[in-house]
Design brief:
Blueprint: E1 13-15, E2 30-36, E3 38-39, E4 45-54, E5 57-61, E6 66-71, E7 78-79, E8 84-88, H1 91-175, H2 181-262, E9 265-267, E10 272-277, E11 284-285, E12 290-296, E13 301-307, H3 309-312, E14 320-325, E15 330-339, E16 350-356, E17 367-373, E18 384-388, E19 394-396, E20 399-405, E21 412-423, E22 426-430, E23 437-441, E24 452-456
Parallel strand pairs: 2-24
Antiparallel strand pairs: 1-19, 2-23, 3-18, 4-13, 4-17, 5-12, 6-8, 6-11, 7-10, 8-9, 10-12, 13-16, 14-15, 14-17, 15-16, 18-22, 19-20, 20-21, 20-23, 21-22
Helix pairs in contact: 1-2
């Protein structure tokens, strides 16, 4: 009748052969066994069935894709720590390493080229600064030449003024007959020479000024050359840094490819036993795709059992448990070490992990029935009582039927009650008071209102 269903209340139908059993004749007294309904307390056991497993089960997988070359173990094989479990064809990884090394070499060469450009740019800056200094000296020289030319012009003008003054004086004296014509001619020649000297001095000034203008243009050109050389040097330095970055990236690529190469061989991280082999040689595997599942034999053995939402609220870490293992006919002691905080989306049940002691002879995959002494009774809903599962005449979804013997009465009455679920050999029901006498044996031979003789049995 589903006594081991851990309180799960999916559609349930239970019938205790009421229809097929012959009922007593009218007035005939039937001997029945009754058990008293009892309160669902915090100390009520939760019975659940699960499978033994190692606490640490490892899914072995590659971190890189590839074609499996070998898979070395099968289910049940014992694996030593560090043993080669599987390997993939390294051809692709080796090609990646070669490519990364070529890129690294190219990047190193790029650093050398960029450094040469930076050195050339530094030389250009020095040359531009030397040209600027030379242009500055040329300006100073040109300015000095302008000064000298202007001084020469002033002297030529003074000579001209003196010669012209002497000519004018001698012309006045010549009109009075005091100066000879030869002297007057000499004075005129001196004036002409002085006038030519002024013209020559003016030409020298203009030439010196033009030279100064050209020298200043040379300064501007030299300054622009410095700026251009500095810009080139900045670009060259940036090129060196970029080349260094490419070199570092290429070196990282080499290291990553070498790391991937090491992962082309998959080794066992611990001593254990193969639980499942999931791939064969020749298959293509993806990163993270499990190749094999193994149990770490050094990790503790636990019983993982699913329980219903009604039961999980009554269980807490530390609750004691008794575990029956039918495969070896053993009873083990255990303790709840972990209670799932969310239900398995596939089943709706909550996993409870129970540690076991003295698990000699128990293997991974053995089934065990756990009886957990649940202590979180303050979470039990009100109005629920326990009755023996065998007392249910039928149970369908949330309803069940039992025979009840009223206090002091000698007849039974058929009563429909609420059905919550099973808890071990008991059923959790509503609609009955604590202490109600429920027929457990002999109910198949009576009908509603039938006369009975009561034999009371203590609830287990």
């Amino acid at each position: 009748c589903g006594a081991g269903d851990n309180g799960k209340t999916t559609t349930t139908t239970t019938t205790n052969n009421v229809a097929s059993a012959p009922t007593a004749k009218s007035g005939e007294i039937v001997v029945v066994e009754v058990v008293r309904a009892r309160a669902l307390s915090g100390g009520q056991d939760v019975v659940a069935t699960g499978a033994f497993r190692r606490e640490r089960e490892i899914e072995l997988s590659f971190r890189i894709p590839g074609v499996l070359r070998q898979v070395n173990f099968r289910e049940g094989d014992v694996i030593a720590k560090g043993a080669l479990v599987a390997a993939i064809d390294p051809t692709q990884v080796d090609a990646q390493i070669a490519q990364a090394q070529a890129q690294a070499s190219q990047a190193v060469a790029g650093i050398g080229q960029a450094q040469e450009q930076a050195n050339a740019a530094s030389s250009s800056i020095l040359a531009a600064r030397a040209a600027y200094a030379q242009a500055l000296a040329g300006v100073e020289q040109a300015d000095a030449n302008v000064g000298r030319a202007q001084a020469g012009l002033a002297q030529a003008r003074a000579d001209y003024d003196n010669a012209n003054r002497d000519l004018n004086r001698d012309q006045t004296l010549a009109s009075k007959g005091f100066v000879s014509g030869a002297r007057l001619d000499s004075r005129q020649t001196r004036v002409d020479v002085a006038r030519a000297g002024v013209s020559a001095a003016q030409a020298n000034v203009r030439a010196a000024q033009q030279t100064a203008v050209a020298a200043r243009a040379g300064i501007n050109a030299a300054s622009a050359g410095i700026n251009q050389a500095q810009a080139g040097a900045g670009a060259a330095v940036a090129g060196v840094r970029a080349a260094a970055g490419r070199s570092a990236a290429a070196e990282a690529g080499v290291n990553a490819a070498a790391f991937d190469r090491r992962w082309a061989r998959l080794s066992a991280p611990a001593e254990g036993v193969v639980l499942t082999r999931l791939a064969e040689p020749g298959e293509v595997t993806a990163p993270g795709q499990a190749i094999m599942i193994m149990a770490d034999e050094q990790s503790p053995l636990i019983l993982r059992t699913p329980v219903s939402d009604r039961d999980v609220v009554r269980i807490k870490v530390g609750d004691p448990a008794r575990i029956g293992v039918s495969a070896i006919g053993a009873q083990l002691s255990g303790q709840v070490i972990r209670v799932a905080q969310r239900a398995d989306p596939r089943t709706g049940a909550f996993d409870v992990d129970i540690s076991v002691s003295n698990a000699t002879g128990v293997k991974t995959g053995f089934f065990g029935q756990a009886r957990i002494l649940a202590t979180a009774g303050n979470l039990t809903p009100q109005g629920q009582v326990l009755v023996p599962a065998e007392s249910l005449i039928e149970a369908r979804q949330s309803k069940a039927t039992v025979f009840v013997v009223a206090e002091g009465a000698k007849t039974v009455s058929r009563r429909e009650i609420g059905f919550v679920g099973f808890s071990g050999d008991n059923a959790i029901v509503t609609g009955l008071p604590v202490g109600a006498a429920i027929v457990t044996s002999g109910g198949g031979y009576v009908g509603d209102g039938g006369a009975v003789a009561i034999v009371e049995r203590q609830a287990p």
